[in-house]
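I am writing to request your help with a piece of structural work I have in hand. A protein sequence and the structure tokens that stand for its backbone fold form the material at issue. Please examine both parts with care and let me know of anything in them that strikes you as inconsistent. The record follows directly beneath this note.
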Amino acid sequence: MKAYRLVTGVDDATFCHRITEALNLGWSLHGSPVLTYDGVRQAVICGQAITKDVPDRSYEPSMDLSQQ
């Protein structure tokens, strides 16, 4: 199975740590990051798609993809 996630958050060190952790857990970057500005929070919001091959699993809509 190939799993897909879109990780989003304020563009700060915490976001970078979340992506770094995912990479070290076997996820791969998929495409370029995206940025937008949230005027309410007055913060830049970043999004990064990531994918991961998960052997010996079949996709189920109820699965928590962040735990794969």
About this structure: The chain has one domain: 2-53. The mean pLDDT is 95.
